[in-house]
TrEMBL record:
Protein name: Serine peptidase
Recorded superkingdom: Bacteria
InterPro entries: AB_hydrolase_fold
Taxon lineage: Bacteria, Bacillati, Actinomycetota, Actinomycetes, Kitasatosporales
Length: 294
């Protein structure tokens, strides 16, 4: 892997790196960068090339949105009222996107009301407890990021992305999960931030009420490729409960060159590890990462 070829932006549930490092950010960075580099390397080797492995720098912002708990891992009952609202809106979008589905009324405030509870029960029955856990963790961190009472969280997270792009000048930016939202806003906010290729992985950007309608700069009807991005590719596992609606990124945003929908991993379709090793991603980045080719 050529130095400077790639950089990443992580997604949900990554505060553990900082916890394991006893709060030392450089140590946490080394750990997550080692993991990302290893996973990408596994995918490259599987593709049959011979590559020089270099660390993949990762914009780490988990501490910017951490609220002192397990970020939704303990279930919907532990969500803040704002996060609960996002969860209700998320499930509502999923339900209305299914042919013939009836909509349940939204409950926008308060503890887990009967309306929201019935929606989570429907979602769990339809998609399983694992999917609900992933979506709950996602909306918990999205709520921390989007909370208008704490705009500094959003600014700090975007600042971490901007700093990596300015300092490392990667040709390719890989943005996973919530990281795709942070990266999109950072790139859209500053036209001086440039990459040849943006790859969004397991992205919730197309969720209209939950994410799309909250983006800054505001999007009116249809979004666009950020000005400093030469090419934008999206990759979504067809079973990923975060990357919905299927094919939605290309539908909601102009300038998306390719929107891959594929079966990447049956059990854990949202994990960064599985996206970073998948054939669809490797096919997009091989030309950038120094194939010394066998």
């Amino acid at each position: 892997m050529d130095a400077g070829a790639l950089a990443g932006v992580h997604g949900i549930r990554n505060y553990g790196y900082l916890r394991d490092a006893a709060g030392d950010l450089p140590t946490a960075l080394r750990a997550i960068e080692a993991d990302w580099s290893s996973w990408i390397g596994q995918g490259l080797r599987k593709a049959g090339g011979v590559f020089v492995q270099e660390p993949c720098p990762v914009a780490y912002y988990a501490d910017c949105v951490f609220r002192g708990d397990r970020m939704g891992a303990q279930g919907p009952a532990r969500l803040t009222p704002f996060a609960e609202q996002l969860l209700a809106q998320w499930i509502e979008e999923v339900r209305t996107g299914e042919p013939g589905s009836a909509s349940a009324p939204l409950a926008s405030q308060g503890r887990l009301t009967s309306g929201v509870r019935s929606m989570t029960e429907w979602f769990t029955e339809r998609y399983g407890q694992r999917a609900l856990s992933v979506v709950t963790a996602t909306v918990s961190e999205l709520a921390a990021y989007f909370d208008p009472a704490f705009p500094e969280r959003r600014e700090q997270a975007q600042g971490r992305v901007a700093a990596v792009l300015r300092e490392r000048r990667p040709r390719v930016l890989l943005a996973h999960s919530l990281g795709s939202v942070v990266a999109y806003e950072a790139l859209s906010r500053d036209s001086g931030l440039r990459v040849e290729l943006l790859v969004t992985l397991g992205s919730p950007l197309a969720m209209r009420t939950v994410v799309f309608d909250r983006l800054i700069p505001p999007v009116r009807g249809r979004g666009a490729r950020p000005p400093g991005v030469v090419e934008w590719v999206n990759i979504a596992d067809l079973g990923d409960p975060v990357a919905v609606p299927r094919g939605g990124v290309a539908q909601r945003f102009s300038g998306v060159a390719r929107d891959h929908v594929a079966s990447i991993h049956r059990v854990d379709p949202h994990k960064a590890k599985n996206y970073l090793r998948c054939a669809e991603l490797i096919g997009e980045i091989k030309k950038f990462v120094g194939d010394r080719g066998a």
